[in-house]
Design goal:
The protein is α/β, with parallel strands linked by helices. It has 4 domains: 154 residues, MoaB/Mog-like domain (Molybdenum Cofactor Biosythetic Enzyme, Chain A, 3-Layer(aba) Sandwich); 49 residues, Alpha-Beta Complex (Molybdopterin biosynthesis moea protein, domain 2), CATH 3.90.105; 81 residues, Molybdopterin biosynthesis moea protein, domain 3 (Molybdopterin biosynthesis moeA protein, domain 3), CATH 2.170.190.11; 68 residues, MoeA, C-terminal, domain IV (Beta-clip). The strands form 7 sheets. The protein has a 6-stranded mixed beta sheet with strand order 7-4-6-5-9-8, with no helix packed on it. Strands 18, 21, 22, 23, 24 and 25 form a 6-stranded mixed beta sheet that branches. Strand 19 and strand 20 form a beta hairpin. Helix 1 packs across helix 6, helix 3 runs parallel beside helix 6 and helix 4 crosses helix 5. The longest helix has 19 residues.
Length: 388
Amino acid sequence: MIDVDEARRRLFATARRTAAETVPLSAATGRVLAAPVTALRNQPPFAASAMDGYAVRAADLSAPLQVVGEAAAGGRFERPLGQGEAVRIFTGAPVPEGADAVLIQEDVTRTGDTITTTETLSPGANMREAALDFAQGDILLPAGLRLAPRHVALAGAGGHGTVPVQCRPRVAILATGDELVVPGAPLGADSIVASTTPAIAAMVEAAGGVAVDLGIAPDDQAEIARRARAGLDEADILVTLGGASVGDHDLVRPALADLGIALDFWKVAVRPGKPLMFAPEPLVLGLPGNPVSGVVCTILFLVPLVEAMLGIETPGPTLHDGILAAALPKNGPRRDHVRARRTESGLAAFDRQDSSMLAILSRADALIVRQPHAPAAQPGEPCVYIAL
């Protein structure tokens, strides 16, 4: 049995980055950049007015000015501004050559084509200088960045209609067990709903992968091997659910062996989730069948594996500092992930932590992380947690 950090190290050591593809900006949100995005232009590309008003020479404001034209966004005033002249200008329009300030319209008295003001301005007032935001050749977005809408906007402003992104890893999910039925199907007296599959698929998709549901395999070694082979043929990672322990009906390990797949490890010092299997070539992650164990191990191992394949430099989950609102007993030999809720006074663990209890997981918004053999902790003591 290996510890959590060693298990993650081995996963990341064998994670192969996916290939790159080019997508339009409309499809880029949530994707991970495969290469830096550099500016193809200055922004703004010219000195631009920041206000509606008049483009002027700041030194001329003590005398009346003659309005000689207009500049709007997309339509510049074509000739240089002369002494004693002003140009009506609107926000975003190019400032005419020769002008060095914009006098806002609220500070102007206009009679016909003549304007006067009592204001004084310094050069550059109410203007945006060329390349104020960024200059051509600047790196706007680094490789490995997961694109949010604000990043997509920046890429577009930099002159890009498409961006290079990592291909989404395909993750095939195979549940195993005679007792399982898909959610919504009729239930027999001894049936259990395969509730973990849609949760894991959703987490894979949110992480940037593509989930492929292989359905439910019965407790038949040959059938598990057949479906596993089919999953490996169409996906980058095969995830199995259940059948990873050592009981008579735990057939995933021998089924993988029938395919010539050698496991790197099959037990991790983690709670919940000790029966966790991993094979590096091809990539197979065998998650425990208990639903909370499967979800927690997806957070700790599967999602970070997807992120590593996408080129994210520091795969999650992120650990946050917190304060305990209630006491915790001493921990055992495995790293524990205690379902808890965040309150005004800190994190309070739920009294019951059974790995089959999804109702408690659904009410939790944090997992308190406790290291092996951690001593008992009291309210007010610091802790570390993963936000859900």
